[in-house]
Design brief:
With 156 residues, the protein is α/β, with parallel strands linked by helices. Helices cover 34% and strands 16% of the residues. It has 5 helices and 5 strands. The chain has helices at residues 12-21, 43-57, 77-85, 125-131, 144-155; strands at residues 3-9, 29-33, 61-65, 91-93, 120-124. It has a 5-stranded mixed β-sheet with strand order 2-1-3-5-4, sandwiched between helices. The longest helix is centred in the N-terminal third of the chain and has 15 residues, at 43-57.
Length: 156
């Protein structure tokens, strides 16, 4: 199983703190500096660069990470074990340790937890083959997650 990581960032201190907890090999990471107006290509274009990087590397998964994430002792490498066990999944969202049994909500319809959702997720290359890339019309930010979610749900 091959993977790449894309980490677009707009605030360098968050990025530095993220990197201090991250153990993904740098050669598998595409870090995109969006800290200034001149450099900022937006979230969707950054994620699309991640898709290009995934294809260049011949990877199976694109892992999208927000630099607001802080990993524990395993530095995020434990997330890879889930991808290895679920090669037929389309999208896998990371969750914090407080999520009992990996559930994203109370089975009775209520509850709240710390699922990282779009801040730590892996998307299988088959998703982009089927539904296309992030729509950059939503730049600089907003509703791109809903758009991609709807396309994924309609296709799969």
């Amino acid at each position: 199983m091959k993977y790449v990581v894309v980490v677009p960032y707009t605030y360098k201190p968050y990025f530095d703190e993220f990197m201090a907890t991250c153990k993904f090999p740098r050669e598998n990471m595409l870090c995109i500096d969006n800290t200034t107006a001149e450099k900022n290509i937006g979230c969707m274009a950054s994620h699309n660069k991640g898709i290009d990087f995934m294809r260049e590397k011949g990877a199976d998964w694109l892992i999208v990470i927000s630099p607001a994430i802080r990993f524990g002792e395993n530095g995020g490498i434990d997330f890879l074990k889930i991808l290895e066990r679920k090669p037929d999944y389309h999208v896998i969202h990371g969750a914090s340790e407080n999520v009992e049994g990996g559930k994203q909500s109370d089975p009775n319809g209520g509850g709240h937890n710390k699922v990282f959702g779009w801040h730590l997720m892996a998307i299988n290359k088959t998703v982009f083959d089927a539904v296309g890339r992030y729509d950059q019309n939503f730049t600089p930010y907003g509703f791109d997650d809903i758009d991609l979610s709807l396309r994924i749900r309609k296709y799969f």
